[in-house]
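FAQ
Q: What does a multi-component entry look like?
A: The components come first, one per line:
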Amino acid sequence: MFILAVALVLPIDAAFMPVFSIAGASPSLAGILAAFVSLNASRRAAWWGCFLMGLLVDLSSPQLVMGSLLFLPGPNTLGFALGSGTVTVMRSLLLRRSMLTVAAMTFVLLLAVSLIWVFIWSVRGIWLDGSVPFSGSALQELGKRMGWCLSSAVVGLPIGWALNRTYSWWGFPGVGPRKF
Amino acid sequence: MVARGPDQPSRLYLACLFLTAACSFLPSARVTPWTTDVAAVLWLPLTPPAHALMVLRHWLRPPRDESKYLDSQLLSDERDRFRALWHSERIRSDELEQRLTQIERAKKMDRGGREVAPLLASVTARGEGPGERMLALNAGKREGVQNGDPAVVGGDVLVGRVVGEPTDVRCWLAPLTDPSTGRVNAYIAPADRPEAGPAESILIQLRNDSSGNLVGEIEAIHQISQGDIVRLADPTWKAAAQGMRMGKVVGIHRSDKNPMRLRVEVKAEVDSDQLRQVTLKIDAGAVP
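Then the predicted structure of the entire assembly, as tokens:
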């Protein structure tokens, strides 16, 4: 189920989600799916799933570095891994099967992704590549990415509701019929 | 040895994280060859659904002025070709005047004399993240696309250029406003004389800023106004891109650092978010 969902989400993110974009920030379904899985799957499965999803996102988003395209495995991979780790730590305090929770955790997860992404590319820019794949300062890029996190969280409300409807299909370990 | 509990990450997972972190800080030359191949293999099955979704997206949210971007018409392509040729020739002739020797002049003639063939390509995907991102096009080496080929819409509105080595069926386009485009030389033609050449215009070097516009500085003695046309005149871009329209002047302010200079803000004419198709201007000689 997870593999199928990832195979659906990646092309949708790349090709279709800009239809919902506001001021250039198009929501990330991958982030919403990662938050949903991190909320409900066993910890190890969630970590591995998000790691894999981040890796696939990295391999679908090239950056131009010193004149050549660079698909760098790392910024999103580690970001999704950190985000998933954060959500799995917080989830015991949350009502997992609420769409509000999915939306809020999407924001948290993508915030972690943004922090790691900006950090890695900034470090590479200083020590390796001599330039960064964003204009302005790292803080300005983080500001832009906050808009991206926010728009993803907003879209996470209906998608989270829909994903919660499919809860029984995923084979998550039982957590009881908690529902908001 | 103590076994790790189900709530602790496995050693394999930690090793993968460590390996990925190490990869993140490897020099680009060590990462580029294999990740490009892996990404191409990964995207091979995903390209058809992505293309279908892109068509659906443009059906749901069409570009603001569809008629402006109808590149498929033969007329538009012809106009595109002749405008490119005209602007390119004008810039080349200006450069030629400055050359001192016959040999250098001959070299310049070789550079500008290439025939350009238009190639329509559809946008099939975009990179992840906010703001300007690279666009994946469904055209590649098989059609003769090469690194650096410029992409235009609406005849002579420059979108960006192909970056990296294209695969047989796919290439990536960096929009003008993408930070990776770096500094670009251009000239500002008055709004009432948009066809003015670089010799009678104001030269400027533009770069991206965080607001998504292109910015540059000129000396304060120059007279420019909002709405003036900005055209490319950068020798690092292919001849087919020379003289193409990049955008319009939208802001003119005194430079904070140097009051004798003006800071000029240029807004790109194309919103890459809204693009469905572009015309790639490829070397006619490269077409198989």
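Q: Is there any commentary attached?
A: Sometimes. For this entry: The helical segments of chain B are 11-24, 28-60, 74-98, 102-112.
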